[in-house]
Amino acid sequence: MKIIDKIALVLVIIGAINWGLIGIFNFNLVDTIFGTMSIMSRIIYSLVGISGLWLIRLLFMNNE
Fold first, then answer.
1. Binning pLDDT at 50, 70 and 90, where does residue 26 land?
2. Which of 13, 28, 38, 61 has the fewest Cβ atoms within 10 angstroms?
3. What is the dihedral of CA 25, 31, 36, 37, to 10 degrees?
4. CB pairs under 8 A, 24+ apart, for 32-36?
5. What is the pTM of this model?
6. Mean pLDDT value across residues 22-38
7. What are the helix (H) ranges across 1-64?
8. How far apart are CA 47 and CA 24, in angstroms?
């Protein structure tokens, strides 16, 4: 697994945990740490979204 794949996977896991916290406890960890829709939180959200798109390709990879 390439380093970019690992970084993308970690970011997607962070996003999934954040969504889980929002769904179960109505608690947004990213907004709590970086502020509601601050520049930093928007960067985090953007990176998580890009990482999700990047990892879509894993669905179509031929595992040998």
1. very high
2. 61
3. -120
4. none
5. 0.85
6. 95
7. 3-25, 29-34, 39-55
8. 23
Q: Locate the domains of the chain by residue range.
A: 3-60
Residues 6+ apart with CB under 8 A from 45: 15, 30
Q: What does the longest C-alpha to C-alpha distance in the chain come to? A: 44
Buried b (16+ CB within 10 A) or exposed e, 4-38: eeeebeebbebbeebeeeeeeeeeebbbeebeeee
| Burial class of residue 48 in the structure, from the number of CB atoms within 10 Å of its CB (0-12 exposed, 13-18 middle, 19+ buried) | buried
Give the percent of the chain with pLDDT over 70: 97
